Structures are given as C-alpha cells and as structure tokens.
Amino acid sequence: MHAFEYHRPKTLDEAAAVLARAEDASPVAGGQTLLQTLRQRLAEPSDLVDLRGIPDLYGITREGDSLRIGAMVRHNEVARSREVEQAIPALAGLAGGIGDAQVRNMGTLGGSIANNDPAADYPAGLLGLGATVHTSQRTIPADEFFVDMFETALEPGEIVRSVDFPIPQRASYIKFAQPASRFALVGVMVSQGAGGVRVAVTGAGPAVFRVPDMEQALALDFSADAIRDIRVPADELNDDIHGTPEYRAHLVTVLARRAVEAALNAG
Amino acid sequence: MNVSLTVNGKAVSAEVEPRTLLVEFLRDELGLTGTHVGCDTGQCGACTVHLDGRAVKACSVLVGQADGAEVLTIEGLAGEDGSLHPMQAAFHEQHGLQCGFCTPGMVMAAIDLVRSYPGASDTTIRAQLEGNLCRCTGYENIVRAVRTGAANMEAQ
After folding, report:
1. CATH says B2-75 is which class?
2. Mean pLDDT of A193-211
3. Which residue of A has its CA nearest to B42?
4. Choosing a second label site near B105 at 20 to 30 A (CA), which of A68, A112, A197, B59?
5. Domain residues for A36?
6. Is the pLDDT of residue A99 over 90?
7. What is the DSSP string of A154-202?
8. Does A153 score more than 70 pLDDT?
9. Domain spans of chain B?
10. What is the mean pLDDT of residues A88-98?
11. Residue B143: which pLDDT band, with cuts at 50, 70 and 90?
12. What secondary structure letter does DSSP report for A14?
C-alpha cells in the first residue's frame, strides 16, 4: 500500500473541503473494496477522507411511502432492520446476501453504490426499486446514477448522503452468487409499485441495466410465465472464466422468473 | 497520526502511519499474535476481531477506522483466571479444530454470530460463517462447536 494522508472530518462540509483541496483524495466509507484495492496498489490516492465521523450520513427512517437509508449505514444494519424488513423485505434480503458477515459489518450502502462494481448487489436494488440518491450537492435518480463499469454520475468531491427507496407493492431480489467471491454472477431485482414494474440486472453486463421488454410484459401480466420467452441479447454481456455471455443471458431470464415468483409469494 | 482505542479492555494510544492495517497494529505494535494473517486479501477470516462488538476482518480495516473504538481479540476472551470463554470451551469440547490456524477467527466470528442470531440453525451457522475458511475442511466439527458454544453462551 502506498502512503497517504488520513482525514477524519466531522461534517460533510469539512469532508468536501478536504476532497477539493487534496491532490487526489478518495473518500473511504467501510473500505471493504477500497482497502484491498489499495493493498494491490491498483489505486494510489494522496489522501483518504474517512466519512465515519459525519452524523448526517447515518440512520434508517420511513417517511410516508418511502424509506430513507443513510450512506454510512452498514449492510448488516439494513439486513437486520425491522423498518426495512417491514417496508421492503427484498432490500433487507439483498443487504444480507452481500459478501460475508464480516464484510457486511463494515461495508456501507454509500460505499457500494459509489464504487458501482459491475457485480455488486445494491446497484440492482436501487435501479430495480426506482430509488433516488441524495448527495452533498444534488439529487440523482438511480436511472441516471449508474453510468458504466465503476463509473457513476458523482462528480469529483461529491459525497452520497442517503438513498430514498419508494416502498413497492411487491419486490424480490434473486442472485446467482459466484461461490468464491459471493459477488453476483447474475442478480435480478424485480419490483411492482406506484412507479410501475421495474426489472434491474447486475453481474451480467459492464454495469447494472434494466430490461424494458420484461417490464412491459410484467406490467400486463405479473407472472413468471409472462417473461418465459424474453431473452436479453448476449452480445454486450460479460465474458469471463465464470460464465459466457450466453450463459449469463440465460441466467437473466431464469432469475427474473424466480424473482417474479418470489415477489408474488412474498406479497 | 495518533490513534486511541481500547483493545481487550485496555486503553491504547499510539503514533502510526495512516496506512497501518488494524491487524498489523494488533500483531506488530501490541504483540497480539493470536489474530492470524491467513490469505491477507479479505477472504479467509483468520484475522477476524470484534470492532465495537461486530466481527470484522482486521486485514481489511485501517487502524484509523478503529480510532476511538473498542477492539476485542482472541486474547481478550478468557476470564482473568484463565477460564475459557464458552465458545472457546465448545471448540475444545467438540474438537472444532484440526491445525488450529483458522480457530481464532472462527471463534470471534462465532461469538458475533450467536449474539446476532440467537438459536441459529445449522443452515444459518453455515451461511454466517461463509467468511471464515478452514483449509483442513473441518467444518462439521466447527458447526457442532458453534452450536454447543451457542448453548453454553445462552446458559451463562
């Protein structure tokens, strides 16, 4: 690991000031991806800005038809929250399936979405539920937040504050986990609510994406059979030692169907 | 930079390089070598300690992230008279170890597991121990030990 300066700001303004001032600063939330990235010398920030001491970034609150979760809320807190379990059980389940228990005890919502790993679970959660991201500067809909592999709409120095999840009528997240890493080989979030039907896929492509054909079919008939014959094109999907693009395309349909069934059983 | 934390009930303050990992601090600065470094890449869980009561991998945490926190390592579990913690005793009773390298991490993870999931089934125990690898593959006895340890802890 290269050397860096370490900052422990107490407010969002203080954190933003350090990020703006430093040569090449990186915020650190739980650090469960960043630490190993630094250790492999894949990144060399001049400064790390630890967001742990900023009270504004915590908390899970239900406000009407929406659930607000702070950026520094850890995966295990979401997984075990009564509030989340009652409002969006699929989201509690998603958080409880990230990494392993120790990773879930450090890793945070804000860190996960800011990193936007192509196989991370939360991006599918946000996109599949039609969430909204609040940052230190503005509000960004999930549809615009996840741009490309490890790339988001966040500007340099912009910090995720919280995420608002509209509470759906029903939802489910099903992932096919790569057995060593626990990352999703493919993961599918399906939801039905006031904003219509949403289907979001992680792990399969360079970044999380929606499947409009499935959404339209499910809007007419919310059943697993309605999407039986809908396939996403394989040509833009990931190809690695864990699976071919064709295999991933196949998994998208299989998991989407299972997610629809699970959502119906849960709702 | 300066960090101040509580380790196994004792206040510790030290001047450290910011890139110091919690596991390096525990082993190299404090001599607490019961926390093992296995894979050193966040996979195996041999370095599991408690940070404010939560099991974390000390190779994936900077000591700065533990500033002001309470850290508990395997050395902090036994009573002052040397009596084993109920989970340690259960690993002993059930032979929940072969070479023993993964054991400190297993025990620390298991204690958090039992507190977080009282009455956990074998399925839950196995799922929650996904972050701890045993290269001897002695999982049957480990799961049995965790179950016994859970009963011992609840009986206390």
Report:
1. alpha beta
2. 97
3. A36
4. A112
5. 1-55
6. yes
7. PPTT--EEEEEEEPPSEEEEEEEE-TTT--EEEEEEEEEETTEEEEEEE
8. yes
9. 2-75, 86-155
10. 98
11. very high
12. H
How big is the CA angle at A186 (ends A184 and A188), to the nearest 5 degrees?
105
Mean pLDDT, chain A, whole residue set: 96
The superfamily in CATH containing domain B86-155 is: [2Fe-2S]-binding domain (1.10.150.120)
CA-CA-CA-CA torsion sign (A164, A252, A118, A206): negative
Q: Which residues does chain A have within 8 Å of residue B131's beta carbon, measured at their own beta carbons? A: 99-103
Average pLDDT for A158-168:
98
Within a domain: A161: no
Q: Which residues of chain B are at the A interface, by a Cβ-Cβ cutoff of 8 Å? A: 1, 17-19, 21, 41-43, 45, 48, 51, 54-57, 60-62, 64-65, 67, 109, 112-113, 116, 128-132
Report how far residue B26's alpha carbon sits from residue B114's, in angstroms, rounded to the nearest whole number.
25
Nearest to B109 among A36, A52, A102 (CB): A102
pLDDT classification of A267: cutoffs 50, 70, 90: low
Assign residue A25 the CATH number of its domain. 3.30.43.10
Indicate yes or no: CB of A102 within 8 angstroms of CB of B131. yes
Upper half-sphere CA count for residue B28 (Cβ side, 13 Å) = 13
Q: What is the pLDDT of residues A28-70, one digit of tens each?
A: 999 999 999 999 999 999 999 999 999 999 999 999 999 999 9
Cα separation, A131 vs A140, whole angstroms: 9
Least confident of A75-89, A176-190, B108-122, B132-146: A176-190
Of A8, A28, A182, Cβ closest to residue B67: A8
DSSP reduced 3-state for A204: coil
Which amino acid makes up residue B103? T
pLDDT by residue (tens digit) across A208-233? 999 999 999 999 999 999 999 999 99
Residues 6+ apart with CB under 8 A from A75: A95, A96, A98, A99, A103, A104, A105, A107, A108, A109, A112
Per-residue confidence at B156, pLDDT binned at 50, 70, 90? confident
Q: What is the pLDDT of residue A182?
A: 82
Using DSSP, state whether B107 is helix, strand or coil.
helix
Q: Position A51: which residue type?
A: L
- A157 in any annotated domain: no
Distance from C-alpha of A78 to C-alpha of A204, rounded to nearest angstrom = 25
Q: Which residue has the tokens 């032979």?
A: B95
- The pLDDT assigned to A180 comes to 80
* CA distance linking residue A88 with residue A105, whole number of Å: 20
